[in-house]
Amino acid sequence: xxxxxxxxxxxxxxxxxxxxxxxxxxxxxxxxxxxxxxxxxxxxxxxxxxxxxxxxxxxxxxxxxxxxxxxxxxxxxxxxxxxxxxxxxxxxxxxxxxxxxxxxxxxxxxxxxxxxxxxxxxxxxxxxxxxxxxxxxxxxxx
Length: 142
Description:
Elements: E1 2-4, E2 6-10, E3 13-17, E4 23-24, E5 31-39, E6 48-56, E7 63-66, E8 69-72, E9 74-79, E10 93-101, E11 111-118, E12 127-132
Parallel strand pairs: 4-12
Antiparallel strand pairs: 1-5, 2-3, 5-10, 6-9, 6-11, 7-8, 11-12
């Protein structure tokens, strides 16, 4: 998992722009989460479901305004891979995912974490944390 300004998947590869940051803002800006998932050889041919959740520093869901009212910031998807003939039997199979977000109106001077689950399972290293700069503090680019 990697935080970045933008990401896309093409021909099974991740293309990342402005990747590897953990400090952003204070003004809202577009962002993305780039994911490379290693699927076990024995799991090929089975559908897999992933979910990405944004939580605040207290572990509470971050709410965003929607036409239906405030909802937790969550993204979900599914993937399935085959067993390529071009790799050795038993090898893990790569899956690249890119999730892009429009500017999120997150309060300045706060800490957030993206949490990933796959098929309902999570791991301690399936998280990405970042901090929004305090109001009035300029980024290095600004």
